[in-house]
Design a protein that fits this description.
about 250 residues; alpha+beta; four-stranded mixed beta sheet; 10 helices; globular
Length: about 250
């Protein structure tokens, strides 16, 4: 997948970048992950989809069949160009913020106990689409770079699966929105991007209306299936576009 010096660079980054705690390190890791794999001409890897890491044996067989070797890149030079392009126009000045890593159902409970003040003015989110992708399996190579296993695996935790069980999916949506409510101000706007397929859309609307019964709901449908999460991660799934749900 990688030429020797790129592989050595990635192994060093995996061992040394403290991406959970240091801003510079998590920014560097994010930039690395974007181009970790993709088109051979513009990524660190041999030819591969950018949106999904294929299985090791499938990839090796495909590269051999097409007589493809990984590009011989200088990873430092490659990344410096990416950084220069990313910050060519400067960087945003943002307010103080916090990032929490974990199951949102647990994190929201913890945040609710610490909450003070008037509450947030906006809840902006896009829940996983039911039965479309297992991020931990389909992104196994990027998770390896973050310290994960060197082979694709499906974690047992419910929040890291494909959400194929309909009732568990409904319960997850309702729990997250209900636990978000105490953290919001009374006039907060709720903005949700979701899947246009019937079950996912109806389950999301039902969970939102249950959590925020006094808010109005407006929806906007986007019907370009080639750009949807459903089409990107599961070419066998029927994609009907995506929907933005806004409550105020």
């Amino acid at each position: 997948c990688f030429c020797p010096r790129v592989k050595e660079f990635l192994v060093a980054a995996r061992d040394l970048l403290d991406w959970r705690r240091r801003k510079t390190d998590w920014t560097t890791m994010a930039l690395l992950m974007v181009d970790l794999h993709g088109k051979r001409e513009s990524a660190l890897s041999n030819q591969m989809r950018q949106t999904k890491a294929m299985s090791p044996q499938y990839s090796v067989d495909w590269w051999r069949e097409h007589d493809l070797l990984p590009p011989d890149r200088d990873p430092v030079e490659f990344m410096l160009k990416k950084v220069a392009w990313r910050y060519a126009k400067g960087r945003l000045t943002v307010s103080k913020s916090h990032i929490y890593l974990g199951d949102s159902r647990e994190q929201l409970n913890t945040l609710a106990r610490k909450a003070s003040g008037d509450g947030a003015k906006l809840l902006f989110t896009s829940p996983p689409y039911r039965g479309v992708t297992n991020y931990y399996y389909d992104q196994w190579l990027r998770f390896w770079l973050l310290g994960g296993p060197s082979q694709p695996q499906s974690p047992r935790e419910q929040c890291k699966g494909k959400f194929e069980n309909q009732q568990e999916y409904v319960d997850m949506l309702q729990t997250v929105f209900l636990r978000s409510k105490p953290l919001l101000s009374r006039r907060a706007v709720v903005y949700v991007r979701t899947d246009a397929r019937t079950f996912t859309l109806e389950a999301t609307i039902k969970a939102l209306e249950s959590a925020f019964p006094r808010k109005k709901l407006r929806s906007e449908t986007y019907s370009q299936p080639e750009f949807t999460q459903t089409a990107l991660f599961d070419s066998n799934a029927e994609s009907e576009g995506e929907v933005d749900l806004v409550m105020w």
